[in-house]
Amino acid sequence: MTTLADTLRLTHIPNLSQWLANESAKVATFDRSFVVLAIAMYTIGLVMVATSSMPVAERLFGNPFHFVIRHSIYIVLSLGIAAIALQIPMSWWQKNSGALLLLGMFLLLIVLFIGRSVNGSTRWIVVGPITIQAAEPAKLFFFCYLSAYLVRRRDEVMENLKGFIKPLVVFFLLALMLLAQPDLGTIIVMFVTTFGLLFLAGAKLWQFIGIASVGVTALSLLAIFEPYRWRRITSFLDPWQDPFGSGYQLTQSLMAYGRGEVLGQGLGNSIQKLEYLPEAHTDFVMAVLAEEFGFIGIVTILILSFILVYKALMLGKRALSKEKYFEGFFSYAMAIWFCFQAAVNVGASAGMVPTKGLTMPLISYGGSSMIIMTIAVVILIRIDHELRIQSIQATSTKGRRKLKNKDLAKTQKISSEVLSNE
After folding, report:
1. Mean pLDDT of 11-39
2. To which H or E segment does residue 108 belong?
């Protein structure tokens, strides 16, 4: 198997300074709007983590800036990892998709034995000062594997049920390990992304509907036969029935939305963050944003998320049109993933869907989510870069060929004139 080091030695890849130095170039070599969107969401997220986490940080650690400092470190670490990931060609991701999937499975397995438990869930691997949520890299690696599988077996997926079922077997194994944590939210994200990608890859509609029905039924049974999951659903339907028990978190979140109205109460003026609303800086950071910046603030975040998802979908479409199938499917996977997770996070805080413990991409506090989502955005930038380089090279080759033909025609014309003069 080709190693990453070998690939990087054999592949000419511009360094980070070269990527950023092409501002005045006639043809841009990557889409800078991805960078602008990511930085905008980083900035908003840092401000919201700061304003929403100070009360709980003061009580737990005696330092109101505890979570802000950690979140800033996560952002810097994410950018450092992004600079490395930017250098990795997409061919490496495709060739090593199987190994990455095994790494993701290993993380999900080992967390069950050495993981740290928080609120009854064992999801985090502690390595010194670093805490890794195993499910986050597992999602990215699974989507990478699924994209590579669809390239190898696309005809099989489109023509018979066997090709459609194979990736679902892998998903089922991952789902079993995630249920042992337990982490139903991640399972749902992977379920929706998997079926969305299979549908876009050309799976037959009756296969899609049939397997999707089985999956929805299974997820419903998991919720019904697990008391705490069932309480979440019933409290979501009517949180005011038990506002100080199972519906407490959602009622406090709805109060935050109500106080925000159109323009909000202003930065730092949230009341719900004063330890009335649990997890105000993680899963429910959007509720605090709604209270302080109102409807306008929520719409701004949704627009930024929509633009990022739309650009990822259009990038996937462009990649497929150029017969870059792995890059196209991977772009589609990340678009569906980002869109669904953002929708569930906002929907849960607004009482539209049951709470699932999913972070808001690039905004909520959480190192693992921040790093993995940053890598996902960087992969989109890399895909766009490779497509642009391919187009530039094709244009240059076409131009050289045209010039060569022109020179040849000119030479033939001169030769014919000389012969005629003789």
Report:
1. 65
2. helix 97-114
